[in-house]
Specification:
Chain lengths: 357, 357, 357, 357
């Protein structure tokens, strides 16, 4: 299904080249002030054509709220948001209509549904994530009420890695077009992406997310653990291949005596001396920073000839046409933030019934 | 909530030291033959005390089916399974009743719920996974009908790694107590775990999962992508810190031209020459092997003194008592398989309504 | 939440006087041919101003499909439909902005949400049902594939009752503006509604639903019984006060020996001699006609002065303004059909996984 | 599926003659004191053999809590309750194994699932409702915290009707074995049931439910209206044929000017002068009494020969064997209360996130 969330629930719709895409947010509490300029600014962080290292395709993703907001505040009814598609011209899609692009969803959609909207990838296009970003902006507004902050930034492009987040000033993420807050690394990343673009190729990367000021007690034990939902949310983003939080894959090499986070008293709060747990213990937030990494594969559309087969199974050649991202991670940053905000908003509401009040 | 799945849905219950744990499976199609010996053999693969490198605590996890099976077959009504807890004696739990063990769920449960069943970790104990294994066994029986096979094995302990799965004979997984099908690596892993145990410490590891013979078309685009559900399912297992599939985190360093999986015709089937996609494209299975890795942290209970705080915030010392696993991955193998089987069974049923038939 | 259904799932949004209302249908199988003229004709049956016994307010409910349909067929992705609101002028709503209309949702919304969109009733307006009718039209197209037919008609207005459905020709429902297929009763009903309108009052009625050609086996035992879902669906329509199926409330006076439906063999089929069961036994369809009755209260908006209180608790007078329906049932017929079709489409899809195939 | 509820969610399992039936309650807030004697007393109100007008079959429905309760209070984890079946002897069921009892679920289960547990009706037996009563008892304990009271009583047997609830003293419901608080009517009802029993027949009845002290604001607009969920919950009980609330089916004959409930100020509270709305406006509670009626058909098992067909379609004769209820409503009273309590507990929790707090 095309919905995410339990109490703060979003349902997205729309294909890349249909009339519009959009989202319904169901379960947003009444009385939340909606800052439309903030929603637009989030969409602008995701939109194509924003810098020289993203696709040069221009799309102004302007949105309209159709319901659920009255006199500037949410009313408790569904908030529906639509974003018109500007580029619906039926271009020539013959090259992909009957041919399966490598590492795209063309083949699997065709077999699953017996049909597909092949224009620009249809539903499988990352354009769908614009709807998530709009909804995520509203989730962020809700989280702000309890002080929860959601950050993300580019921590790796190809093999170029930024230092760990603890050593970075996250307020500098937007200072560079690659959205890496470490200026030196950012410069190298930009150069690499530029070079890859010239080679008519693409490259992968990692986005790191950091959630600060989470109250203790968010997350549900067993199946809906906080990090399990974060993981699902991230893995649902196009091109994502992996998710880890806290010590992650590197943590497996440690001994328990190294990895355990000892508790101590810090003023009124109980805190941990280290944070290999990544802010989550037993699936529930412990008040420390929640941090995680999201791996993105190199974009599948490349400006080179590749062999494939067509619907009839005949060998064929395809090559990317038009303007595509040489590296997806700079534009993925707001998407990671949006999904993280949606997860946290949902758990925030779910936590309201954990105990007899 | 304590449920997982959409159409093949499980709900687990039970605490480590309560009367029993168990599971309800709702949505299992009628007419499935239930092999009770197989369910028991799966539980035996998970049970404590099975080898020298697992906890020496003895628990015979015998189960009883309370409903949903009649004359050896499922009836379409909920299948309820209970596993009695044998070890309910109220041991002395004073040491953890008022104290928060490092990197356990004691503190977060206490704050979230205002109370907790502290005996043996209560609901946060990995004992809950026995219920998943029982349900997973039934999911495996269902998958067998369409030929889908679910495998898992230990691919890493500490820094010791087995070769990639393509080079292994997965039928040898059960040949060693560490459940690594590569004999040479297995021997080293066993030695390492034994040494860590003698050091009264613990160590982490990685379990690799491989799903074979999946038909094309399983998985739901957008939020419930096949790999996103697999990721959530794995991350919901105790001690898991990361999930990746296909090329995973290593894939980010590749170029698109290296990473893309070109299609070709293999007899009647459309296949891909490489499989960096890990058998999933656009969230939907493409018929190739689905493979993934699951990172497990070192077990938090160590036989050493650690500093922590008690409920009142006073500094305290805790140390593991009793018998615990020095490394969780050998016993995690059947749990990873169970969760993978549950995910696949659910998607198999969900795929029945993808198209007008 | 603002969603209905499990596999064929709709989510509606929109307020009476916001920019638009609409619906997302998630789970409609791919390959269904979409007849847009049929959707429009269903909306036209519900629209205001269609006859002298409905409100004279004119609204042309034209819709646009934003997604999920490509080259005339569903693609398996969400079908989003929007209906623009034509009447968004901020009329003078001062009379209801601060005052609670008797037997409306003004007071309960205000307390629940701390706010409300008071223009035309906002979300509580029956305008929301246009979205249901559009979605129901698509459900009807799906049902047609298996031969299932959904009918509804006006069986009672005030105390005027039509004969039982078995004595009626349901193809004549649209022959009269009151949508009662019995011409003689229809004439009296129209006269009564006209008279009530002149008295500046309103009157209630009953809509009867009949579902024909249902295959045996739809419906889920226990909580999601076929008739329980039908009941919920009907009771979710504005102004509905009661639901009964088969023998209903009258059946309680019968003896078991009178009420039981004996089975017999009719050619290849097993059928029942009588049908007090209303086509449902144990929550599952038995192949006989499913029939049910839905009670609608008199419309709450009347053209008379009524006493009430305002937000501050001061006594106040309200009176209906504008043009309202003197009796809701003629326009409720397509809504009852739409909800019945949605219920049946959902159960049709759910039935695909009842057994091992 | 076999679950009910959104946040206070129950899942039941079990067949009439399997090892046990039971229920998992997921979402009960932590810290609720569990009075086991109260749960037992509720089960005793439902159990067979409790009086001369119910079945004389003796079943002691004793329950065991397997999880979710620690030191007398809920912990926030799933509360699992099992009730062993005492009567599992494989009696001679040949008469129903291959034959479809009229107006039972034998035929529909057989076709839907291709199999059925025919012993005592299997899953379709009303024995399943014992699990609901146990869960409902816990819901009642939760509701008591906010003062909400759930009442039900027998208001009609055959054509014998008690006066409206406003004229009754509901504390007298348990004074008679028929559970009608009006002594004179109760006496006649008992005589009627006794006579019907002697005639080896059965008779239907009506149970009225009354919910008092509901805060304003429970219930969700649109699909999950308070009365729509109540309706579904009631219609999901075995043998129920109809549901109405407030003015119900009789209300359709009224004019709007008669039916509307005018608001007035009563001390600090806003109240309505009349209550045709049945305590619900726009799907949301308005603080007045919620009252509703539930129609039960005559029990299908009668001690008389009836014609039917067997699996092969041959004509056959069946007759009730053993001990059955001549009228179900006296024992249905606690079931109606249980389902009403479950609905209200769920809405109580859902209301916690209606607004920004």
């Amino acid at each position: 299904m095309n919905s995410y969330g339990t109490l703060f629930k979003i349902s997205t719709f729309g294909e890349s080249h249909g009339p519009a895409i959009g989202v319904i947010i169901d379960g947003c509490p009444a009385g939340l002030e909606i800052n439309e300029a903030f929603i637009q600014s989030e969409l602008d962080r995701r939109k194509p054509g924003q810098s020289k290292i993203t696709t040069q395709r221009k799309e102004e993703d302007t949105f309209q709220i159709l319901s659920g907001v009255f006199e500037g505040k949410t009313t408790g009814t569904p908030v529906a948001i639509v974003i018109q598609n500007q580029d619906q011209r039926s271009k020539d899609y013959t090259h992909i209509q009957n041919t399966f692009r490598p590492s795209h969803a063309d083949y699997t959609y065709e077999v699953k549904y017996g049909t597909r909207d092949y224009r620009g990838g249809g539903r499988s296009s990352a354009r769908e994530t614009a709807a998530r970003v709009a909804a995520g902006a509203i989730a962020k507004l809700l989280l702000k009420k309890t002080g929860i902050e959601v950050h993300a930034y580019v921590s790796q492009v190809g093999t170029l890695k930024a230092p760990p987040y603890q050593h970075l000033d996250l307020s500098k993420t937007e200072d560079t077009i690659v959205r890496c807050p470490d200026a030196a690394t950012a410069e190298k990343m930009i150069a690499l992406i530029d070079q890859v673009r010239l080679e008519r190729d693409t490259v992968g990367g990692v986005v790191t997310g950091v959630i600060k000021n989470t109250p203790v007690g968010l997350g549900e034990p067993v199946f809906d653990k906080l990090h399990a939902e974060l993981g699902k949310a991230m893995l649902s983003i196009n091109a994502v291949k992996g998710f880890e939080y806290g010590s992650g894959f590197e943590g497996v090499a440690l001994r328990g005596s190294q990895h355990n986070d000892e508790f101590y008293k810090d003023g009124d709060r109980i805190r941990t001396k280290t944070n290999h747990s990544g802010g989550v213990q037993g699936g529930i937030s412990n008040g420390e920073d929640i941090y995680f990494q999201v791996a993105f594969k190199p974009v599948a559309t490349i400006m080179q000839d590749q062999t494939t087969v067509d619907k009839e199974g005949n060998e064929a050649i395809v090559s990317g046409k038009g303007r595509h991202d040489p590296c997806v991670v700079p534009r993925a940053v707001p998407i990671v933030e949006a999904m993280a905000a949606l997860v946290m908003a949902d758990f925030l509401l779910r936590s309201k019934t954990s105990r007899i009040s």
